[in-house]
Amino acid sequence: MAGIIGRISAFLKSPQGRRYSDQAKRMASDPRNRQRAQDMLRRFRGKR
Q1: What is the pLDDT of residues 34-48, one digit of tens each?
Q2: Pairs from 19-23 (Cβ < 8 Å, separation ≥ 24)
Q3: How far apart are CA 25 and CA 22, in angstroms?
Q4: Contacts of 27 (CB under 8 A, 6+ apart)
Q5: How far is residue 22's CA from residue 36's CA, in Å, rounded to a whole number?
Q6: Alpha carbon of 6 to those of 9, 13, 24: distances in Å?
Q7: Does 6 score more than 90 pLDDT?
Q8: What is the DSSP letter of 48?
């Protein structure tokens, strides 16, 4: 498990990882995307 975590952290420190991280932060700050994510989580939780 530590190998996977190490790979993920190394990726996030790379230029491409930083780019994806910044993109995810921008998308998460958009209220419409936040609402979509909350709706999706609500649907998945409701089916269990």
Answers
A1: 999 899 999 999 865
A2: none
A3: 5
A4: 33
A5: 19
A6: 5, 11, 20
A7: yes
A8: -
Q: How far apart are CA 44 and CA 24, in angstroms?
A: 21
pTM of the model: 0.57
Across 20-35, average pLDDT:
92
CB burial of residue 19 (10 Å; 0-12, 13-18, 19+): exposed
Q: How many CB atoms lie within 10 A of CB 17?
A: 14
Per-residue confidence (pLDDT) for residue 10, from 0 to 100: 94
Q: For residue 26, give both structure tokens.
A: 């921008």
Give the integer Cα–Cα distance in Å for 1 and 45.
27
